[in-house]
Amino acid sequence: MSTTDVAERRGAEGAPGESGTPPTTKTRGSWAEKAALPLAWVVLFAVFAALNPDRFLSMGNISNILGSQSILFMLALAALLPSMVGDIDLSLGSIGGLSAILVAVLNVQQGVPIGLACLLAIGAGALCGAANALFVVRFRTEPFIMTLGTGTFFGGLIFWIANSTTIVGVSGTLSEWTYVRVIAGIPIQFYYCLLVMLLIWYVSTYTPLGVRALFVGQSRDVAALSGIKSDRIRWGAFVLAGVIAALGGILYVGTTGSAGPSSVGAFLLPAYAAIFLGATSIQPGRFNALGTGVAVLFLATGVAGLQLLGAQDYAQQLFYGGALVAAVTLSRYLRRT
Fold it and tell me: What would the pLDDT profile of 149-182 be if each residue is shown by its tens digit?
């Protein structure tokens, strides 16, 4: 058993004599924390199923919950990476929107094959992530303010490239490989998100890179004393976040067949709601991929259920905003305990 595993086990069970609470009670409490969000999702699903069983339990609605929220899922995974190493990136919505508009402009207006257009958009996402890393990591600026500024700059690029119009007519091949093609009744783009989530989970849990990233996220001073090159890991997190956000933009174009100046930016707030909510589950107090995935399903189920019950559009914003407030409060509390 590794040192990290021993530390986590002792943290969950408690060392003898440190508390009057028996270790078994603490272990049960730890498992209750880890399973709280998945159980809440099951309860939420059951409530909406009971209120409107015919429509909510239909295959069309299940496909909508899992498939139509893939852009949110991918953007949440992008936001997860900087958060895991102690940073924040508020430009990811704009990066996703920039990649979406690049795909549309290159394919529709410039006649670039859709595959090449997607590769160029991913490259643009990587460059945007590298620009964030340059200003935040190299010049030691505050990531909240700096990525808010770069996000605004990228947003301006979107309006300039798109000429403030929505571009339609993107090649149907992209839709075929993102939304139209299904596996077990669920659009294939959901499985792309699952693959990215599992890759992040595996690397962060079972590889030395994941352990180093954990040290960097918890304390950069301790990481430096341990010989870990924090700056290199933070650079990698920003660049990969830009790439994954670009993938989210590509999924958006594949789903809608078009791209506009404000295509993906609206997904940024619920994406952060998902990662903070995910930090309360599976590995409480720590940003983690599996918790983020469960949180996305929780948010998607809540929004779909409210829509089927006839809730107005503002209910979605209330749900996302309330979830973000609750998630940040709980995750900060768990990180301090």
Answer: 999 999 999 999 999 899 999 999 999 999 899 9
- Judged by DSSP in three states, 163 sits in coil
Q: Which SS3 state, helix, strand or coil, does residue 52 take? A: coil
Nearest to 113 by CA among 177, 48, 170, 56: 170
Which residue in 188, 177, 189, 172 sits closest to 70, CA to CA?
Answer: 189
60-109 pLDDT, tens digit each: 888 888 887 899 999 999 999 999 999 999 999 999 999 999 999 999 99
pTM value?
Answer: 0.88
Helix, strand or coil, per DSSP, at residue 167: strand
On the 0-12 / 13-18 / 19+ scale of CB atoms within 10 A, 120 is middle
d(CA 138, CA 154): 20
* 12 in Cβ contact with 24 (< 8 Å): no
Amino acid at 102: L
**What domains sit in the chain, N to C, each tagged with a CATH number?**
34-336 (1.10.3470)
264 contacts 97 by C-beta, under 8 angstroms: yes
The answer to whether residues 286 and 33 touch, using CB atoms and an 8 Å cutoff, is no
In angstroms, what CA-CA distances link 220 with 92, 111, 170, 228? 23, 47, 45, 9
CA distance 242 to 314: 29
Dihedrals phi, psi of 49, to nearest 5 degrees: -65, -35
Q: What is the rounded CA–CA span in Å between residue 103 and residue 177?
A: 15
* Phi and psi based region of residue 10 (left: phi greater than 0; alpha: psi -120 to 50; beta: remaining): alpha
